[in-house]
Amino acid sequence: MTGKQQALQATPSSAPAAARPGTPVTALLKDVFKPLASLRLTIVCLACAMFIVFVGTLDQVQIGVYEAQLRYFKSFFLYFTLPGSQFRIPYFPGGYTLGAVLLINLIAAHLARFKFTWKKCGILILHSGLILLLIGQLVTSIFEEESQIQLDEGQTKNYSESPYFDELAIIDQSKPDSDAVISIPASRLIKGQTISLPIKGLQLRVDESYENAALINPNQLPSPNYPHLRLGPMAVAVAIQKTYKQNERNQPTAGVTLLKDDQPVGSWALSSGFPQPVQFKIGSDPFEIVFRPKRYYRPFSITLEEFKHDRYAGTDIAKNFSSKVRLVDPSAHENREALIYMNHPLWYSDLILYQAGFGNNDKTTVLQVMKNPSRLLPYIACGLMALGLVIQFGMHLVSFVRRRVIT
Amino acid sequence: MFLQWFPAIFGSLLHEDFFRSRRSLLEFKTMGRSRKSRRWGEVWLARPSLPESKRGAGVWRSCLFLLVLFALALTGCNNENISVYRIPKENNQVSLQTGSGNLAPPPPSNPASWTKPDGWTEKALSEMRLGSFQVAGTNDETADVSVTAFPGDAGGVESNVNRWRGQVHQPTLEGDQLAQSWQEETVDGVPTIIVDVQTPDGTEKASAILGAVMRTADRTWFVKMTGPPDLLKTQKDNFLRFVRSFHFPSTSDEEKPQQQEPPADQVKSTNDR
Questions:
Q1: Which of A386, A307, A368, A312 lies closest to A339, judged by CA?
Q2: I need a labelling partner for A21 at 20 to 30 A (CA). Which of A57, A144, A190, B20 fits?
Q3: B172–chain A Cβ distance below 8 A for any pair
Q4: What does CATH list as the number for B120-255?
Q5: Hey, are the CB atoms on B83 and A183 less than 8 Å from each other?
Q6: B249, B204 Cβ separation under 8 angstroms
Q7: What is the pTM of this model?
Q8: Contact B269/A at CB under 8 A
């Protein structure tokens, strides 16, 4: 008997393991994974997945594509909010839960049920493709980053902006060569909370916070006492319902006080609908505070040289949109022109830039910037699945033909 | 990023499997087996198994535990974290996104120009100010001058003048009465009104406002000087000279047809018809 088997026999668990064929390790693994490998579980999960896809697709009409994705597919549970309260009761598994259970189920099935034989290698390849697909989706949902660059002709930017998220940025301009940016996500601005900031002992107190606001003239207030935030002499912000429409953006607005060593430095009312930086000083150090769409800074800059909106002759029907841009990356000694148009995005470092929109009488372009480290995984996964199917059916076909030849 | 995974790793240490494996390690020790057979992987696998009836429950617990780990890992990777990063110095490029009910003024594409009178000190621009000055008088008195511009009629001349009147405790006026309270003139081809109001006699903290409202084709410009009445009296000539120095390129030069164009910040998707 090997040392390994002796060791296993020393504990009570070794008894069932020894009774099974194969190495004790695989036998034990089978023991553990068998209930997880249940086919019933697979069927229930697939049925639940069909249900959430159905309901989620219907709900897109009400809450838009992005919010529906968040609520139904990029969540662990679907929640029901009790009317008139903040309590949320989970009532159905969400996409993450189902995906995770299916993934565990599939892996467990392989460990508990399948034996590796050449006859089954087609199924194994097919399933490994499926596992890769599920893992790829998980990696995508965690690491994917979607943003946009809006450029006027001649304008240069070294950052893109989130179409969904906003940030309260406090910019320390005390250094001569570079600025330090503290980015606080809008979702962290909760009324009454004080947030410790990671530099110079600063704290931010949130005095008021609106998820979405309309910016109006003070004269348009229903009454002078109507709750509002004063953004400036001619504009006030009033809270309105969050919007889910695809062509509208929420304008989170907050009244904040910056504290240094518990002493207030200043109070401001800021709105992402009016992303104008406000300058102030702490001691002699110049600072800026601004509420704006969340920015992703890049090591390169993009300049829009020309935007073209071609139409079919004699009509107003769009034929082609294209952006001629100049890409400059000093760190990679890159300085080149690129043309971005339909099906021809610009690939640079780990980003892809697509033509997405236009405006300002065809003088402004909007480029969609996608960062997805796992973008190749679905292709590899589908390739594996196709290969698995071909091998599996090919083997059946060969044996069938052989039998026919013999008879 | 990896710091966010610590709760998950820490959680796994607290999981009962870990303790169970420690217990079986102790069992090995007490049984006096040779050191060679003590490998961590085997120890984990050789943990005492649950009775047959409870084994299913244990597995479900592991499954739930895996889900919790997964949830912890995910929550660590979302957009909720405060981040600090350094960027090269930049010019303030303000981006204006479209949104519901946005009345905030777009940055003037063709800003007016003006000449600052001697003795006025320029101040840092803040919030919506396109021009900001401080005027010093005798006895440490100071007055503040601001230049702002808003799209359209910015709520109307009447309501804005009445708002200024309210700030110096003067009653609201209407129609002809209000029109008689201001002076009208034309600056660079733009109709302009000049307002001079101050707190009623006997007010504890006397203050005055000198204001000018200039209505160009696309926006309304406000020049406002606030301070003690004595100082404003001595500065009135300077203020008028300042207002009359305004030059509006977009209205007085030949660029008017642009008015018909849609707003600059309206962006369409290339997928739209």
A1: A307
A2: B20
A3: no
A4: 3.40.1000.10
A5: yes
A6: no
A7: 0.59
A8: yes
